Amino acid sequence: MYDVCIIGAGVTGCAIARELSRYQVDVCVVEKCEDVCCGTSKANSAIIHAGYDAPEGSLMARLNVRGNEMMDGLSQELDFPFRRNGSLTVCLQEEDMPALQALYERGRNNGVKGLRILSGEEALALEPHLQEGVTGALYAPSGGIVCPFLMTIALAENACVNGVEFRFQTKVLHIQNADGYYRLETDQGVLESRYVVNAAGVYSDLLHNMVSSHPIHITPRKGEYLLLDHSAGRHVSHTVFMLPTRLGKGVLVAPTIHGNLIVGPTALDTEDREGTNTTAEGLREVAAKAALTVRDIPLRQVITSFSGLRAHEDGHEFIIGEPEDAPQFIDAAGIESPGLSSAPAIGEMVAEMLGEKMGLKPKEQFMGRRKGILNPSVLSMEARNRLIRENPAYGTIICRCESVTEGEILDAIHRPLGAVSLDGVKRRTRAGMGRCQSGFCAPRVMELLSRELAVPMEEVTKSGGVSRMVTGTTKKNAGRENGDL
Prior knowledge:
The protein is an alpha+beta fold and 485 residues long. 32% of the residues lie in helices and 22% in strands. It is built from 13 helices and 22 strands. The protein has helices at residues 11-20, 59-78, 97-110, 120-126, 148-161, 204-211, 280-293, 339-358, 381-390, 406-414, 422-429, 442-453, 475-481; strands at residues 2-7, 27-30, 47-48, 82-83, 87-91, 116-119, 136-140, 144-146, 165-167, 172-177, 182-186, 189-198, 218-228, 239-242, 252-255, 261-264, 268-269, 302-313, 319-321, 329-333, 397-399, 404-405. A hairpin with a 4-residue loop joins strand 21 and strand 22. Helix 1 runs parallel beside helix 8 (339-358) and helix 10 crosses helix 12. It is globular. The chain starts with a strand and ends with a helix.
């Protein structure tokens, strides 16, 4: 019997877990995939929004602004990269300037600081690659960029060292209100918990509707992206948005925290909650719409494409709190953009809510700081040489594109909630995220996973489950392995 069971180990679930780990409470996080950050949290724009787009007075607006304010301190405490690069929302037609002014007023009413409307000339001075016909732009200096993988992993690791239990590859099949607690039927057996937090992303409506007669509806909204090489990373320095439409903020062009350039997303509603395939049509749309605001994007430098699903709620609002007919069941549903920006504030809100309902007491020994994986490239040459002498694994390059060492990969595997797959290593170290997209380093990473986890090479996976990298052994090879041939 847990005190709180959180369903979903994305950025929302992990932020809630980290905040709850401040208290004397028995918490479990249940995740259907093999790692944290395997859903929406791994496939998004990696943007920390300023907070001017969400409707005035909405929970979405309040939590966006609060989450943005928390980001500097959180990134320092948990040692993940974050930078306030600022954003520009670009107006291309003079007749659309009133819409830009309305966005400015909304942002001021939401409490966003430092907003300014720039002339076309001022915008071009900040971003020379904007289309020359730009008539104006809304400048938000508090906008930022982050690594969503490292942010989610940092929240999860810190929650783990403070006592939160994580159960991976555990899919919740049914939830039953058992008069004072909940029974969670999973594919790994039954769990029981006094309180349940529903942070299941695109599946959150299905879980909510199991316990409440007041249904909610989530539509998976697919967004496709292009990711460009480091050589294109300085094409823009700010996050460049189009004026928003009813489907969202449109296609953006932005630098990433690791020096790439990201372009996207599309916005296509779908019924497939696992439909993260990319399409030629969608990627053409991304390229065409990006060119409306930013010229000369070096699309020949694209190194990969990907897509993610946003959990779009019909009312376009975060749903956070207890359904009136399901006490002790807390929704954190409909967390679409600006969900990444809002996650720290959502964690704070839900933890305070549960703390009050459950009468929770703070821990005396809460460990609020966490150190990330050491990157030798940030050290002075003297310090790097000293590190290599102490641990030669830091002198062996495994991923040439991103200069990731064996020492970093070993740290990723053996940390709290360590990596157990190629994607797990990739999200923690960037091994495989470079220009060759793991063409060179995958076999070596597989060898390290096999050795360190003491599993046969045939059981090493790309992303857990049945995604094995080695798919079979011929009779001839099997005989040679046994010494028969």
